[in-house]
């Protein structure tokens, strides 16, 4: 396997056009790129653009609000992945504006790291309703689907905010200004769903694409592949993570997803509805669907595009339209200690990743 330095040398020897924009759609990729200093090591012609790779950032504001209200007003224990707890919503100053603040106000809210913990909690407390607020892309939603498929205690329900990544990329490519010339496709998502999900990028849009893993070597190999495809005018879907990503993905995980969840139109925070980009729990599992069990906390009036906090440019960051440090609040009003928007909260948010890597202006 070639080293990162080898791949960098190969990229530097390519006859590059004056400007090439390569988008990634995975918070893990963005973290590896930023922490390894790959941006600064590449020729100036190459721009690396973080795209829609943070599920917490795009989780609709009304879903977070619903989780907060449910936890405050029902006799339940609400569990969620840790970084969701600090995601802010728009609410009057006197009201809790995040799950963390709702917890401080007395709601029983607990962070968990996996669906197994939610099941264990439900088993240990059979007389108490447990609600699992599960936001994530395919990689995180697949274990939730497996949990539902294998059978869960009757006192456990799921407030699901699952999203599929490829429809967001399709939406960008169908727009008049996609904003990128090549795609580094997400390794973990491809592990579950199969690399074939990204074929439309090359077949329909003639945009070079390569699936990458999370090491600098794998990411640089994928970038080199897309650059060569671009230069040679020969786009194809490359797999630069073959040790993990297999044709067809993970058949068991896909079967669990198909058995328990429907694919539906879904709202992305600050972006709006993207067709067939969300997961919803099937009717047959209605007893485990928190949206059906606690319908009164669904507030359709909150369903609107542009629900980022005032002044927060997170939606444009998520869509790769601006870099994190181009938001006027970055590092000023908005820091990880005092986040304004979800992109500064989540470990997969581009703003937080850039800040953690020392980008200060
Ligand atoms: Fe939103 Fe903060 Fe990022 Fe600006 S820096 S886009 S306010 S999360």
TrEMBL record:
GO BP: protein maturation
One Pfam family recorded for the sequence: HypD
Coiled-coil ranges from the UniProt annotation: none
Keyword set, alphabetical order: Iron, Metal-binding
Gene Ontology MF terms in the entry: 4 iron, 4 sulfur cluster binding; carbon monoxide binding; iron ion binding
Superkingdom: Bacteria
Family per similarity comment: Belongs to the HypD family.
Protein name: Hydrogenase maturation factor
